[in-house]
Amino acid sequence: PPGAVGVLDLRESISDDQEVVVVGQIGGIADPWSRGQASFVIMDPAALMEGEGHSENCNCPFCHKSSEETEGLALVQFVDDSGEVLTVDAQRLFRVSEDQIVVVQGRAKLDQLGHLVVAAHGLYVRR
Questions:
Q1: Whole-number Å distance between alpha carbons of 33 and 117
Q2: With left for phi above 0 and alpha for psi between -120 and 50, is residue 27 left, alpha or beta?
Q3: How far apart (Å, rounded) are the C-alpha atoms in residues 75 and 56?
Q4: How far is CA 2 from the centre of its chain?
Q5: Beta pairing class for 18-26 and 5-6
Q6: pTM recorded for the entire structure
Q7: What per-residue confidence (pLDDT) applies to 69?
Q8: How far is CA 71 from CA 75, 101, 110, 122, 127, in A?
Q9: Which of 21, 35, 44, 95 has CB atoms 3.0–4.6 Å from 4's, for a disulfide?
Q10: Is the alpha carbon torsion for 35, 76, 103, 46 positive or negative?
Q11: Backbone angles phi, psi at 120, to 5 degrees
Q12: How many CB atoms sit inside 10 A of residue 66's CB?
């Protein structure tokens, strides 16, 4: 899709809840997948971030990271019409793997903790 921007550029320009096209590399933390959900973490391809794992008691990839540590990251969640995250592993649903570059279309916003979250409705895998 045309007009894709990196995670860091999107973070700088985002205003509330807006339609976006963002490019990123799956990863950025030790386990970028949300088990049983169509969601994953992407990082800005230009960001040189060293990801650390998150609490095993939490289903959220961002659970114990500060805003500074997640600045180059975005949580991508594929949602149904009611806004609920689809209950199927993203790896199985989209046949994607860590370190792949993807372009995501959706609505992005910053959550209460300052994390960039994309409610996605489109995915393009760069191969």
A1: 14
A2: left
A3: 17
A4: 19
A5: parallel
A6: 0.82
A7: 65
A8: 11, 18, 11, 23, 26
A9: 21
A10: negative
A11: -90, 150
A12: 10
Nearest to 29, CA basis, from 61, 74, 75:
61
Tokens of 19: 């339609």
Amino acid occupying residue 37: Q
**Closest by Cα among 13, 27, 119 to 73:** 27
pLDDT tens profile 33-64: 999 999 999 999 887 444 344 444 555 555 54
Residue carrying the six token digits 């990863």: 27
**CB within 8 A of 47, min separation 6: which ones?**
7, 8, 28, 71, 72, 73
Distance (Å, rounded) from C-alpha 49 to C-alpha 127? 23
Closest CA to 102 of 16, 40, 10: 40
Task: Tell me the per-residue pLDDT of 61-114, one tens digit each, with 9 for 90 and over.
Answer: 555 444 456 789 999 999 999 999 999 999 999 999 999 999 999 999 999 988
